[in-house]
Amino acid sequence: MRLLPLAVGLAILPHLSHSENLKSHQQNEAPDSQAADNHEWVAWNPPKDDFRASPIDLRSLNEKFAGEKGRIVARDGRFVHSSTGHPVRFWGVNGIGTKETSEFAKSARMLAKYGVNLVREHHSVFDEKTGALNPDDAGKRGQLIAALKAEGIYTLLSIYFPLWMTPEAGSGWREGYNGQKHPFALLYFEPEFQQLYRDWWKEILTAPTSSGTRLLDEPALMGIELVNEDSFFFWTFNYDNVPGPQMRKLEKRFGDWATAKYGSLNAALKAWNSRHTRDDPASGRLGFRELYEMVTHKTKRDQDTAAFLFEVQESFYRETVAYLRKLGFKGLITASNWTTADNTILGPLEKLSYMSGDFIDHHGYFGCNHKGTHAAWSLRDGHTYSNVSALRFDPPQPNRPKAFNNPVMDPTFNGRPSMISEIAWNRPNRHRGEAPLILGLYGALQDTDSIVHFAFDSFRWSVKPGFFMQPWTLAAPTQLGQFPAIARIYRQGLIKPGEIMAEIPLKIRDILALKGASFLQKANLDELREADVKGGTTKDAASALDPLIYFVGRVNIPISDQGGAPKIKNPSPFINRKEQTVTSSTSELKLDYGKGLLTLNAPAAQGAGGNLREAGIIRLSALTLESPMETGQILAVALDERPLSQSSRILVQAMSEEKPSQFSTEPAGDGTFRITNIGRDPWLIRKLEGTIRLSRRDAGQLKVTALDLNGHPVEKIGTAASFDLLPGTPYYLISR
């Protein structure tokens, strides 16, 4: 993650003031004065939610309490309930939206309403200078997990990220630190630090919580994440970041490894025909070439270096998993989630090092060319940005070729379940509303087992005003506001998983020889960690596999001693580059990336998102849409899981684009914009426009009820034969 927020995110992101008393009114009452000044925009300012029964409330999709059907286990490549064997997909968020224990229950209820069944609690548990455990941490986490459990929400616990630490000078694992450096890579090889880290887990998992139970025995604790965003194979592993006294320990271990392989250090150096300024045969130490040199030259020394670093990193994960199992933890464990200096060469080694865990995780962010002081973690007046559409594969910077990558691209490794535990579309991109649509629909197509949005830093609908804002907040109209329909589609499997379009076995011997795999997805770093990249940007070679195949179906990557021949289905029936379209192997999704339009045509869920204006009339099997919105989403979802042609209860959900009140910009050249006012509460949405027609004989007998922003009935506005969207009303119930 990042030097401040994203992964530091919820832990040390500066707390921004926000109004505790947002005005309560229905969306069809007189709007906020700022919205009134701009006839194109309507205030998003919902009344206090009393959580009455509502068509947008997805609480019933969760268990009565998390763990009701047993622990979550990994079985046959899926997450399943241990007692029933039924598979479960997790639609999750990072954080619970409050630091106050008195507000945990309210926030958990809100999350359950919006379809969330997993929270990644990603927070430090230690003093950043000494590593001493915070004594009251286990108790507070127990309260948080209990509040989530009561709403049927599971917890994934993440406690370590090197950016949370700047160790002060000291002996042992702190030798060489000065209170300013982060301990990148240290955990993989320093025994004293490893013991301290494992002691954190022991205390957290075994200490009694306020209810007298132990987290070790809590089925609602779905899983544990060992390390967030660190690796020997990322740019942060270098002699500038790892202090000399610590690096000498690793160099000695490398010397011992080479001696065991070649008989002596001199024999190793002779076999390599290579010397490094840090080589010290008299002391038994060998130096490390820079990652750029390793992935560029791939010499025998480079191959041995990669093999050594892989073995050390893999052994840490394997030994820590064994430690936690011996401690008695029966939940799921994942190793890490990071990218590498070159995913085409080092990516397979990184993933292989995770295999002692139960599932594979990765992170991804969709940026908007956001530049300025502290732009990595804040929005400020004077910053510049671009409006970037993922549905068009817009490049991060304007006037450049299309960028055929997306953080939702999610291959499966060795049949393990897959999670994206941090993913976000950064504001103020006007196309940010594409995010839930892309994640829910293509996550379902790829059969991704868990999508965890970043970051639920407040459960109030607030832009979090101050002299700066953070760029990822989820309590926003285009994000959480679109969860009701999309979380239902994703979690209930209303879109069929795609065919396996590619299976590409990798041989361990080949990836240790740095032969790599050119088809892995691009890194999609957030701005903060992009700053850690050395020597340019993270290298991703031209792919031998058409990247659009991820929008057709699934990609499997087995890594084994045997390897095997690739099996790639012909994608030409689904990918038409001349017309700039991609159709899913299920025929339920079609992306027109020329227009920037995604259509969904499944039996129980239909609609479209993106440039609805250019699309004109959109005719689907049970639904016809027409809208002048240049960027918007309109979906119809059966609430009874029956086909839309038969359903008696249908939720229609619409969204446009969002901005804070008083937000303003000016052109900054080359297709970019400069922020002149970051704005204030409340959120605004561009007025919703469009006509919806349900294509069935009894459509005229089905009434349409407009709902308020909490999903409660306001007024009947016509029938499903044809009705128009109201400017500030995103939710409608079609019923008999």
Describe it for me?
The protein is of the alpha/beta class and 736 residues long. Helix content is 21%, strand content 21%. It has 15 helices and 36 strands. The strands form eight sheets. The chain has a ten-stranded antiparallel β-sheet, with helices on one face. A hairpin with a 4-residue loop joins strand 21 and strand 22 (597-601). Helix 3 runs parallel beside helix 4 and helix 8 (291-297) crosses helix 9. The protein is globular, with a radius of gyration of 26 Å. 54% of the residues are buried.
Keywords:
single chain, 736 residues, alpha/beta, ten-stranded antiparallel β-sheet, eight-stranded parallel β-sheet, 36 strands, 21% helix, 21% strand
Number of DSSP E strands: 36
| Cross-sheet strand order for the largest sheet | 19-20-21-22-23-26-27-36-33-34
Strand fraction equals 15-25%
Can you tell me the residue ranges where pLDDT is under 50 for at least 5 consecutive residues? 1-36, 525-530, 535-543
Level of helix content? Answer: 10-25%
What's the rounded overall pLDDT mean? 91
Major β-sheet annotation: 10 strands, antiparallel
Q: What is the radius of gyration computed over CA atoms, rounded to a whole number of angstroms?
A: 26 Å
Distance between the termini: 49 Å
Please identify the structural class as seen in this structure.
alpha/beta
Query: Which oligomeric form is depicted?
Result: single chain
Give the helix tally: 15
Gross morphology = globular
